[in-house]
Amino acid sequence: MRADFNSRVAEQGPAGGWSAERVHQAMRSRESFRFYSALRTCSQDLLYQTVREPIERSSAALINEATRLARRGTRSGAGGSLTLDPRLPVPRSVSAIDIHLMPGSYHTEYGADDLTMGAVYEQRLAISTFGVFGPNLDDIGQSIARFMRLLHPGWRPQRILDLGCTVGHNTGAWKDVFPAAEVHGIDVSAPCLRYAHARARLQRRAVHYRQMNAENLDYADGSFDLVFSSMFLHELPRRSLARVFREAHRVLRPGGLMLHMELPPATQLSPYDSFQLDWDGHYNNEPFYRTFRACDPRQLIIEAGFAAKRYVQHVVPSWSALGATAWRRVARAEEPSVDSPQTGRLARGVRWFCFGAWRD
Ligand SMILES: C[S@@+](CC[C@H](N)C(=O)[O-])C[C@H]1O[C@@H](n2cnc3c(N)ncnc32)[C@H](O)[C@@H]1O
Predict the structure, then answer these.
(1) For the packed helices 190-202 and 59-76, what is the interaxial angle rounded to 10 degrees?
(2) Distance of CA 92 to the CA centre of its chain
(3) Ligand 1 within 6 A of CB of 188
């Protein structure tokens, strides 16, 4: 598709030059684009069908196993907790559509104590990411937590909060890297949190999971040293995004850090790369994806009450792809340049884009 664009389309540039949307309009009718779109849509359909069937068959066994792990954890002192709130309204941005065409979205429950959507999310991620997320599917958390420790050797966050944690892949990574920290993960989806809790117990990580809306956090002012999220913000409506940022600012202690791993912003990528990344925003039931990518991340942190000069952004190399020694060398030389074919892409040698701010 890129070769088709470069050799046959690029030179007929529109007046005013290319933008992601102009590339999209020019490519829509091209065979390369239609073939790419058909392949992605069909393979994703097949993926959901494939993972759902065995999960539905083993639903009762999954519930039994989660119950056993919850009891065993309590007896063995493995720590961590699960607190659900059945009265919490699920936001319409989650319940009104099957997000990224995932049947049932995140929140659907097919019976008491159900974990189906947590299991579907994990299996879907394992298959669709081709190993790029590492053996425990937590490369984002492992890479970014290690990167922050490398960059700030004296920094030891004592309380860490992960927003929109789903099944807690990247929440648990913070516990690995900062074992003395009290780590919390929140999400609106009960089946995902049940799965997260069972997974954490199985992996002996003490994480506290709570069903909560990130727009309205039930935590005291100034009670966290780090508020983190991964792949969360692009699924929020613009108004919710602003509320989530203000809440993050409120619950952070002075000197605390807000950090979000996300899709690279449109303003920092070439029009072609941005067009390719935006595919999901057009065709994959991701209604807020392009709105998020169009935002200026620096403006977002300022609106939330952070000082502009406290803005940070990083492009973090993959820990699981490189291994400890090479990773440390590459991470030390990190430049916060986003426009590389690996940044935010499911490519070998992926680099994770993240941004945020320190609270004064
Ligand atoms: C793409 S997933 C996040 C993936 C996860 N952080 C990871 O690293 O694997 C988005 C999650 O956000 C949750 N979510 C959406 N809106 C929310 C809100 N307002 N408050 C809390 N969680 C929310 C969804 O239920 C879903 O689990």
Answers:
(1) 50
(2) 19
(3) yes
Of 231, 114, 239, nearest in space to 169 by CA: 231
For the domain that residue 133 is a member of, what is the CATH number?
3.40.50.150
> Residue 101: which H helix or E strand, with range?
none
Confirm whether 25 is domain-assigned: no
pTM listed for this prediction: 0.96
For residue 270, report the distance from its CA to the centre of ligand 1, in Å: 28
Q: Which residue has the higher pLDDT, 331 or 75?
A: 331
d(CA 35, ligand 1 centre) in Å: 31
SS3 assignment, position 81:
strand
Separation of alpha carbons 84 and 9, rounded Å: 52
pLDDT digits (tens, 9 = 90+) for 284-330: 999 999 999 999 999 999 999 999 999 999 999 999 999 999 999 99
Is residue 328 in some structural domain? yes
Residue 73 confidence (pLDDT) = 67
Task: Give a yes or no: residue 8 inside a domain.
Answer: no
User: For ligand 1, atom 5, which residue shows the shortest CA distance?
Assistant: 165
Domains identified in the chain, total number? 1
Q: Are the C-beta atoms of residues 98 and 104 closer than 8 Å to each other?
A: yes
User: Which residues are paired to 161 by β-bridges?
Assistant: 184, 227
In a domain, 223, yes or no: yes
Q: How confident is the model at residue 74 (pLDDT cuts 50, 70, 90)?
A: low
Q: Which strands make up the sheet holding 81-83, listed edge to edge?
A: 81-83, 207-211, 182-187, 159-163, 224-230, 252-261, 351-358, 311-317
Residue ranges making up the domain that contains 345? 32-358
Tokens representing 318? 């993959």
Rounded to the nearest angstrom, the distance between the alpha carbon of 178 and the centre of ligand 1 is: 23
d(CA 19, CA 177): 40
Q: Are strands 182-187 and 252-261 parallel, antiparallel or unpaired?
A: unpaired
Single out the residue of 206, 184, 193, 190 nearest to residue 73, CA to CA. Answer: 206
Per-residue pLDDT, averaged over 60-67, amounts to 96
Task: Give the closest residue to 80 by CA, choosing from 168, 144, 191, 140.
Answer: 168
